[in-house]
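Fold it.
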Amino acid sequence: MNRRPARPGWLQALAAHGARPAVTQLFLGFASGLPYLLVFSTLSAWLRESGLSVAAIGWFALAGSAYVFKPLWAPVVNQAPIPILTARFGQRRSWLLLSQASVALAIVFLGTSDPSADLARTAFWAVILAAASATQDIVADAYRIDSLDRDLEGPGTANFVNGYRFGVLASGAGALLIADQWGWPAAYGVMAVLMAVGILTTLTAPEPKRPPATTDAPFRAAVIEPFRDFMTRRNWAMVLIFITLFQYGEGLLGVMANPFYLDLGFTKTDIALVTKVWGLVMSLVGAVVGGLLVARFGLLRALFVCGLMQAGANLAFAWLAGMGPSIPALTVTIALENLTSAMATSAFVAYLSGMCDRAYSATQYALLSAFAALGRKIFVAGGGEAAEALGWQMYFIGTTLAALPALLLLLWLMKKDRHFR
């Protein structure tokens, strides 16, 4: 009779967060998280201050379409060498360096644009930044999958999520505080400098070992085989539907959060200190709790519980809409949302990573995360119009309902697939 391997104890699971490969993920996560808000919620605050309507800001989310289409160039990132850089740093690190430098430059140019005078220029550089950021995500995700052993997947993923949250803090609270004092160009300029964290980490981290068969494989095989391999798995189509829907409710909330705070009467400093700084504290706790739940109880069970809690926490925003600009109410709302969101994200990223074959990690993870981006970034583009039509309270109740189909589908997948139990 086969027995499941013993799960690690709480202290052993916690200590794994300090292993060097797991710590590296903390800093790579920071570099991945930094540009995200500069394309989405931080940019939406800038756009709102520049006079754009809530509906127009919602559609501006389409500037992040690169996150959805990144599987189109993921095979190139996975296989194609970069002259000079690849010979010196290896396949993964060379692409990390190129993408991180591109992100830094795009942030600078986006910061020098003026949405009130030339919205098209702002949109152009937002698209370029999203493309560079999506490319960095492809490589960072592949590096994480390639470099973490099975026993470090949960802690390493949790560290990556925590690092991502630190990056979000910098480009959220940091950018808002700087913009409040010195303007948006200065805020974006400082964010560009902070990308040095990712570049220095890449320069000092080791190149992960990759299966020899993929290193010398024909380029055509590198493009086709990752998709063919994934589609040989049971219930692969239902898995993709689940991945698309899982973060839809959270995406509807996130795309309208900053316009909602400003409309409710909070200042940029309020938003920075409560939603970003306090939110980060709760996110760090949530990411660790999510990683511990995965290690202790298994992936799918943890994913369902965390997803259910995340959906329920959205109702706090409907409550906040009725309370008005109350700092205590905002503090409670942000605590619930960030804690549960980080728990769910930690489990979800571990789920996506576990679905990938290491031989095709860059392409397969890009494919899966692109489907997640459909629900989180593209399908939410009409959120501004929905908020204007429904009002803030009904809109946030709707975000909770939007999360339920994915949870029902996850229950079905749990019965069909025992791989992650």
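Residues 153-182 form the longest helix (30 residues).
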